[in-house]
Amino acid sequence: MKIAVLTSGGDSAGMNAVVRAVVKVGILKGCETWIVREGYEGLVRGNDHADGSYPEPPTVPEAASEAHHGHPTNLLANLRFGDGLLLRDGTGDHRGADGSGNSTRTLAGRYLVRVGWDDVRGWFAEGGTLIGTARSAAFRTPEGRTEAAFNLIKEGIDAIAVCGGDGSLTGADLFRAEWPSLVQRLVDQKRITPEQQARHKHLRIVGLVGSIDNDMCMTDLTIGAPTALHRICEAIDNINSTAASHSRAFVLEVMGRHCGWLALMAGLAAGADFIFIPERPPDAKTWEDEMCETVHRHREIGKRKTIVIVAEGAIDGDLNPIRVDKVKDVLRDRLGLDTRVTTLGHTQRGGSPCAFDRILPTLQGLEAVNALLEDTPDTPSYMIGVRENKITRVPLVEAVKMTKAVAEAINNKDFKKAMSLRDPEFAQ
Ligand code: F6P
């Protein structure tokens, strides 16, 4: 089996550990391993070699490659951010993957790259995604997906592991479902042979969830969420000392477009007086009173500081967004608190993964390769999750459907349903 791994959607800490795990486990299980640069966009762009022949990873110096199952290696080895891995349209990039200026090693015009053991060495400690991610408009079109199919077949790849959020995983499932028709179209266009069609009847796909928001149903945790939470806690710890010094209030905006997990958990882990989350919006008419009463009570018992956390997607019961500036004004005007706003932004998303965001992707990467090896046209495409500390496989479509149902329930003001879908125990 030839496996390609790609990362898609917003980056999250732990995505590199996914790539590392899929590549290493893949090699150990006798597969050929590839990465796709720049997510689905890379799949659509493919490799720029007209005759369909893949230029074997050129000028591979290390004899070490042979030591690892004979895999070609080191095209990517020792790469760090931006080293020749940037998305480029033309062929003008001749810096080479190793920054050497040796054009034979450049990755320009090549989005699918065969990788070996050494290429992913130490990747679990790196933040972001070293193979890049991009929002691909082209992949959303049937033409784009036909190109993607062609590019995979051209390289003989028959399995892909996708690490991304719900949108990315929906794309993966659609791609797998329409694969036979895409392949037929390529035969009709005489771009692939009937032999290639016979060999690529089915595309094996598995999804791993990379999202700092922890916003996917049917899994307890998404890759990157623990690290983001850790960043928020550190930020609140820092803010606490300055807030207490001046006896100030701080309103913190944290990420979480449709999900309040980061806000809620940060409130528990670092302490907050009041929290706003999308799944449990406060009454539009009374939230100001409610917040002021709570903060006032805490002040009365001697607190010198006030922390209010607002999830990015927080709303009130009438679906109006809760704005941090509005919260600040209320605290200032009604309680006379000297109040500041801090928006943590992308500091939550970047940086080195915490230990759990290395362990989880490593264990899930192993399960992902197993799922790919067992994938048949009769099995559903799986999403690898974690439930009660056990690595799980769940049908990808169901998880995505349920995640979308949460957003729908919120839009319909059925907040109880939204919470129950997120956490089945909430319903009891
Ligand atoms: O989906 C993760 C997330 O971090 C959201 O919380 C946030 O709204 C969004 O990504 C921001 O993404 P970007 O800046 O890449 O558009």
From TrEMBL:
Residues 2-47, 111-372 form the Phosphofructokinase domain. It catalyses: beta-D-fructose 6-phosphate + ATP = beta-D-fructose 1,6-bisphosphate + ADP + H(+). GO terms for cellular component: 6-phosphofructokinase complex; mitochondrion. Residues 1-428 are annotated as: N-terminal catalytic PFK domain 1. The keyword ATP-binding applies. ATP binds at G10, R135, S136, G165, D166, G167, S168. This is ATP-dependent 6-phosphofructokinase. Mg(2+) binds at D166. Keywords: Allosteric enzyme, ATP-binding, Cytoplasm, Glycolysis, Kinase, Magnesium, Metal-binding, Nucleotide-binding, Transferase. It is found in: Cytoplasm. Residues 47-69 are annotated as: Disordered. Its cofactor is Mg(2+). Belongs to the phosphofructokinase type A (PFKA) family. ATP-dependent PFK group I subfamily. Eukaryotic two domain clade 'E' sub-subfamily. Belongs to the phosphofructokinase type A (PFKA) family. ATP-dependent PFK group I subfamily. Eukaryotic two domain clade "E" sub-subfamily. GO terms for biological process: canonical glycolysis; fructose 1,6-bisphosphate metabolic process; fructose 6-phosphate metabolic process. One of its GO terms (molecular function) is AMP binding. Substrate binds at S211, I212, D213, R248, M255, G256, R257, E312, R340, H346, T347, Q348, R349. The active site is at D213 (proton acceptor). Its main location: cytoplasm. It comes from Coniophora puteana (strain RWD-64-598). Homotetramer. Catalyzes the phosphorylation of D-fructose 6-phosphate to fructose 1,6-bisphosphate by ATP, the first committing step of glycolysis. It is an enzyme of class 2 (transferase). Allosterically activated by ADP, AMP, or fructose 2,6-bisphosphate, and allosterically inhibited by ATP or citrate. Pathway: Carbohydrate degradation; glycolysis; D-glyceraldehyde 3-phosphate and glycerone phosphate from D-glucose: step 3/4.
